[in-house]
Batch of 2 targets.
Target 1
Amino acid sequence: MNRRSFLHGALAAGAISGRARAADQSGRRLRTALIGAGWWGGNVLGEAIASRQCEIVGICDVDQRAVNPTVEKVTRLNGDRPRKYRDFREMLDREKPEIVIVTTPDHWHALCTIAAVRAGAHVYVDKPTAHTIGESQAMVRAARSHGRVVQVGTHRRTSPHMIQARDFIRGGGVGTVGMVRCHLNAGGTGPEQPLPTVAVPPELDWDLWCGPAPLRQFNGGDPSQPDAGAGTRGIHPRGHRQYLDYANGYLGDAGIHWFDLVLWITGEKWPRRIHSTGGRPVRGKPVLTPTEQTSDAPDHQVVHYGFESLTMTWESRLFGGNGAERGDVAAANFYGTKGTLHLGYRGGWTFYPADGGAARHEPARLNDPDGQNIRELWADFLDAIKTGRRPVSDIEEGHRSTNCSLLGMISYRLGRSIEWDGVKEVIPGDAAANQLLRRAYRKGWEYPA
Ligand SMILES: NC(=O)c1ccc[n+]([C@@H]2O[C@H](COP(=O)([O-])OP(=O)(O)OC[C@H]3O[C@@H](n4cnc5c(N)ncnc54)[C@H](O)[C@@H]3O)[C@@H](O)[C@H]2O)c1
């Protein structure tokens, strides 16, 4: 999927009729602004436009090469003429949006979301909620104290086939679930070759891109190019996932989706004990010199989560392919007394009865582009705003799901098990681990209280 095709999924599905600028029942569309006009921001924005209930008033990105084509496409699709911004604070101040979409890299989610709800906006923030647990806690507090709807982009909660699987498991179809195995096998090859440091392009404010996180040398590419960042190892665009200053590897990027499904389906709220191992035996030791760098996220990771009623495991791997798992890039298996339910990434779900009876398969029902259900999640978001109810992927739930990823990273960094008190949200009696609930921000930025 390249960013040029953004919004076209909505068009192809007939969700937008020409350049119509439809309004909701009240006749007025909600003033909507985007922070982070990259790959996924385009997908979310496309559904905001397709809903016909949003007037796009501002597009903000620290890279003008991402802003310009996004603004042009919005105008082409629904006639809106959003203003262009580099600094989200200025956009919030001038546009006073009612809805803000936050699709920046993870290290910016908390500051952008908190600033937006303080400015009076409802927020759709993509997963994971934040880069550290303290930021995510501050996001929940900000949403509650300002009475704003904050929806996290865990769109699988609105996938029709996932709802069906949830009901099947909750209805006892799998029996008592004792264990869930989540995994991601992203392929990959051998040692990672360092990328050279290159000049920061004039259209990009690299200092602001790094923001509260460490300022690394720039090694990225041009987001306006087709498939920019897909499969490359530069930090920007899209490569931030594998650089721990800005994200948390596949555990933070993909793990959250599966953990969110496990919590949602089983009703578990948090793990009591977490243990992670992993490393970079294949990609090699991270490199960071003034002239070149590699990523530094693990090339494989295993995490054990001890919940009250079940054990959950996570495995991610960037080598070896996945032939032995019949091509499943990512999945979760729910193991119960009546059999195993296999929740596929884009392949629907299959229940294999323990008694050897016939398997039941239900296909996935996903939208283009990129096999997602943002349309349904966006509709839920708008309804929550109108009715004042909590959205299906409410910030507090996204926070707990994200915590699973972030606690796994804390255990990985410490090289040992940790306990989690999910009521007080602390790691009891473990000063070294509690320190990792937060991190120091770069000068000029304040960690959210
Ligand atoms: N829900 C999902 O299934 C899903 C899928 C993909 C990505 N995502 C999430 O979306 C987010 C973005 O990922 P992506 O793949 O689109 O990355 P991307 O690099 O394509 O886009 C991020 C954009 O944010 C911009 N940005 C950085 N700092 C900014 C700031 N301070 N203000 C404004 N813009 C800023 C970057 O310049 C870039 O254009 C990530 O958090 C990712 O986890 C969610």
Target 2
Amino acid sequence: MNNVNIKKDYDAIIIGAGVIGSAIGFELSKKGWKTLNVDRNPTSGYGSTAASCAIIRVHYSTFDGCALAYEGYHYWKNWENYLEFSDEKGLAKFIECGCMIYQTDTNQYLEKVIGRAEELHIPFEYWDPSQIKSKLPIVDTHKYAPVKLPKDKNFGTHAGDDLQGAIFFPTAGYINDPQLSAHNLQRAAEYKGGKFLFNSSVTEIIKKNGRASGVKLSDGTEIRSSVVINVAGPHSMKINRMADVEKNMNIKTKALKVEVSHVKPPEGFDYEKKAFVVSDSDIGCYSRPETGNHILIGSEDPECDERIFVDPDDWDDNFTDQWNTQLYRQAQRYPDLPLSSNIKGVVSLYDVSDDWIPIYDKSDLPGFYMAIGSSGNQYKNAPIAGVMMANLVEKCEAGHNHDQDPLSLHLKYIDRTIDIGFYSRNRKINAESSMSVLG
Ligand SMILES: Cc1cc2nc3c(=O)[nH]c(=O)nc-3n(C[C@H](O)[C@H](O)[C@H](O)COP(=O)(O)OP(=O)(O)OC[C@H]3O[C@@H](n4cnc5c(N)ncnc54)[C@H](O)[C@@H]3O)c2cc1C
């Protein structure tokens, strides 16, 4: 869709057409709202969504995190039915290869994760080191913790002990094309009447009578709406400042530079077909198979690594030593991993909240809402975040005071009810969080 036929009045303007913004556009359109997603990029899903590893996993450090992720899994599993419309570009595919998490000192041998999986009836298996090796013969199951930088003299050494084992969740995997998944949501929203405006930057939140009443674009165009939703990814803090709502929030967001290494697996092993998503806190890396028999390796943000927070409009998007660090760390686990110097992968930004848990909430400015702070781990929740935000906006606009009486949401697939107040902008820092991409 090009930018013609954009009117000047909407029921809701959604700033951002990433996977979460597009999902909110779709869910509100389904409720009969006239929506407009505005994005500075040329099409949907070109922000952090395009850079995403798009891992769908069901383990989190908090109960609400697990429940939301397991609900979200079912949306990806039923993607075509959920969209109610097909996309001329095809549909994003869910590769359900499963996810293995090593039991380590760092994650307390997954005691909490196992408890939550049992409570939510999420299927899982225990694997001991010999079972791990039978599934992934390229693996060295020695303990390498604590995670170190490659320049540390003890890097790559172990005392001979094996890891205890791992937990394998079959209901996990990854989406082969995250940008396409946002486009699928865009098309589904358009089918329900939603509009999208691209190559257009929001520069101001217009206010009238003490509430949000629209947005102003960089070319001076003003578009009116009594509801404005900030889903601007790593730019979320800038949009909150435009609305002047950030200063009253207890939890804030920042843009964090991150890198993903894209490398070949050990020779002779079909990683794409035989491997799965792996979370390995013993070496501080997560990984997943990638099309063309490659491995994607990302960081689990260990303590020893510097965190590079940036201005999302002015940052250096070149690779740093992080790329090599991830490769060397992964080579501890896969000793035959080729140590290539052919740097390929992704440099992008996370929209990180103070406790690495997202904010799905209203604000102190009536009519202004936010779905932000996705902290490198909310791609998987995009469809259910769309459902949650559409319900929140609808009820608050009908007069409900979500700050005083937090709304709840029934998760239809797993038949659980969660408290949306868990995602409040005014919560205390959640001490149960991993304070990392693991959420
Ligand atoms: C490297 C990397 C790996 C990741 N891996 C995973 C993973 O494996 N699993 C997982 O669940 N999550 C993962 N994530 C996180 C996930 O990708 C994000 O949570 C998700 O894509 C966020 O979607 P979004 O719609 O909120 O933001 P975005 O996709 O960033 O969209 C925000 C949009 O807002 C637009 N915008 C910003 N400012 C303005 C403005 N002023 N005017 C108009 N438009 C504006 C931008 O152009 C952008 O398109 C990863 C993220 C990264 C960066």
